[in-house]
Automatic annotation (TrEMBL):
CDD domains: CBS_pair_BON_assoc (cd04586). The keyword Electron transport does not apply. PROSITE patterns: BON, CBS. Residues 145-214 form the BON domain. It comes from the Bacteria. Pfam families: BON, CBS. SUPFAM superfamilies: CBS-domain pair. SMART domains: CBS. Keywords: CBS domain. This is CBS domain-containing protein. Gene3D superfamilies: 3.30.1340.30, CBS-domain. Residues 10-66, 92-152 form the CBS domain.
Length: 225
């Protein structure tokens, strides 16, 4: 079974900025390229941090409105005695949460959810930026054709991995939803079959009506039905 990796779905040509890139230039790049964040890279494209739309808005939210009123209770940067954020180095989140090219998509999605980010820079073993992966990229496997999903389940899972008899199970796929019907020897095989088929790229959901010859999960083995 072959699972797609970050390298296969990521964007390889990445819009980046340097630590000295000004605020307005970062804003222009985000709008022009319709992206929500840019990696900040140093020499040899080593990842230093990430500047997002939220970082820009967080900085501007400290400014007073036209009548001189502040939007919240936070003090302006200058009132705190701190320099105002003018460049990527001032604005960026660092260290940046990143992914690696060999990560599987489930691992990547969990990282995005845990860190509450929409995209992850992808770095190699030397911390050099090699791409960027977004939530939209993680959805690409769900665009797989139903026939390709069915073929992978039948050949890679049921035949090559589980070595089931060719006529043991029937596989139907519609809109990424898999339906398994048939009969196997042991009841304990069913959860394994479901787990492996469910993990195939592009599977949205799985329903099964699989019968079994005997219940090897029970304390007393039942006679064949």
């Amino acid at each position: 079974m072959q699972h797609r990796t970050v390298f296969e779905v990521m964007t390889h040509r990445v819009v980046t900025v340097s630590p000295g890139t000004p605020f307005k230039e970062i804003a222009r790049l985000l709008v022009e390229h319709e992206i929500s964040a840019v990696p900040v890279v140093g020499e040899d494209r080593r990842l230093l941090g990430v500047v997002s739309e939220a970082d820009l808005l967080r900085d501007t939210s400290e400014l007073p409105d036209l009548e001189g009123r502040r939007a919240g209770v936070r003090l302006l940067s200058r009132e705190r005695g701190l320099p105002e954020a003018e460049t990527a180095a001032d604005l960026m989140t660092s260290p940046a949460v990143s992914a690696q090219p060999g990560w599987n998509l489930v691992e990547t999605a969990r990282t995005m959810d845990r860190e509450r980010v929409k995209r992850l820079p992808v770095v190699d073993e030397t911390s050099r930026l090699v791409g960027i992966v977004s939530r939209a990229d993680l959805l690409r496997p769900f665009l797989r054709d139903d026939t390709a999903i069915r073929d992978e389940i039948e050949h890679d899972v049921l035949d090559d991995t589980l070595r089931l008899a060719p006529d043991a199970l029937r596989v139907a796929v519609s809109g990424g939803v898999v339906t398994l019907t048939g009969r196997v020897d042991e009841r304990a095989d069913i959860p394994v079959i479901v787990r492996l088929c469910r993990s195939v790229d592009g599977v949205v959901a799985l329903h099964e009506t699989i019968d079994y010859a005997y219940d090897n999960l029970a304390l007393d083995v039942e006679p064949p039905r």
